[in-house]
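Notes from the 1:1 (GR / supervisor)

We went over the backlog. Supervisor wanted to see one worked example end to end before approving the batch request, so GR pasted a single chain during the call. The sequence is below; no edits were made to it. Supervisor asked that the structure be written out right there so they could see what the output format looks like.
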Amino acid sequence: MTVQTAIPAATIAEAPEALVERLARAGRSAQRVLARLAAPAKAAALHAAADCLRKAEPQILEANAQDLAAGEANGLTGALLDRLRLDPARLAGIADAVDQVADLPDPVGEVIDTSTRPNGLVLSRIRIPIGLIGIIYESRPNVTADAAALCVRSGNAVLLRGGSEAVHSNRAIHAAIVEGLVSKGIPAEVVQLMPTQDRAAVGAMLTAAGLIDMIVPRGGKSLVARVQADARVPVLAHLDGICHTYIHSAADPAKARALALNAKMRRTGICGSMETLLLDAQFPAAQAVVADLLDAGCELRGDARACALDSRIVSASAEDWDTEYLDAILSVAVVDGLDAALDHIARHSSHHTDAIVSEDAATVERFLAEVDSAIVMANASTQFADGGEFGLGAEIGIATGRLHARGPVALEGLTTYKWQVRGAGQVRP
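Structure output shown during the call:
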């Protein structure tokens, strides 16, 4: 399989606003074709795309090696390099996720509810695609495949703008996906990748009201802040993942040790990684929990009582409680019971994912009810904060706001609805 990654000279010379308008209009036209396709046709196209990803493994891994070499030369952190890195197992997982999305129930056309008015009018709300979605993301080449699959399955066209760190990987993955879609009759313009890394193109996407129907930023705080500040298009965003795990006094020590270690150290560079550990002052195995983390190579930054647990813990600054490290660094605080834990989370959580470890059912239920985050967990690692783990096949991102969608955004989050009204000649008096 040949993967084309070169950019046409005409595209390089094109003004960002004109480029975005041209791509957006092509995407909107292609979306109308996609919207007419039945669910089995969309599923077959995605299965073909997954097959093409597998066949293109040598080219994709070669492209990824280019990105990794450039990232190392440019001083990317270990966490960012981990997000960027592909290997045969990770690439197989990306292709498998596309297959999983293909096999999910199609949300388009779902009847959300139906009612009959006293005058005989029958009203129904029907789930429909949003239209053309713009996705701006950094570092993670898997987003290229996840976003393409979710948008196609939900009947949307997508305009992707990946970060420069993954430019070669993104182009190779995009080429393979489009090859599969086109082989099953879906227009190539349904999934488009911005052909330039010019930052002005991001600004053009953000102001393309009437052409792009929704923007989804997926990246660091600075990217999301820029999108929210500059966008003239509706934005579905998540901020940083400052995720907490509270180990209650009634936690099972063995369970607490395993969960804390996994929540932080399984993969430190993902948004579901625990960034703050709250230890109940009455929990008897606090020293063992922090020792496990320290022995695994995690730097711990604690308050005064946490520092007293182990001499290797350094003092935390005020900024640490509000920092998403995405690295083997963890803030640790000792708190006096559930109320203190809830207060700390309310002050410092980014409303992404927060968890409790406890064998006391009443405490667990109160935590689940009172913590105001998109995902609240009990006796589980925060690393499960992932659309695939939720049975959604994949995700566009994890939304931490309160409107439209919250938590892992997958097929349903990429749809809206319309009202259908069926009458029998009624006129309004």
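Supervisor's comment: The chain has a mean pLDDT of 93.
Batch request approved.
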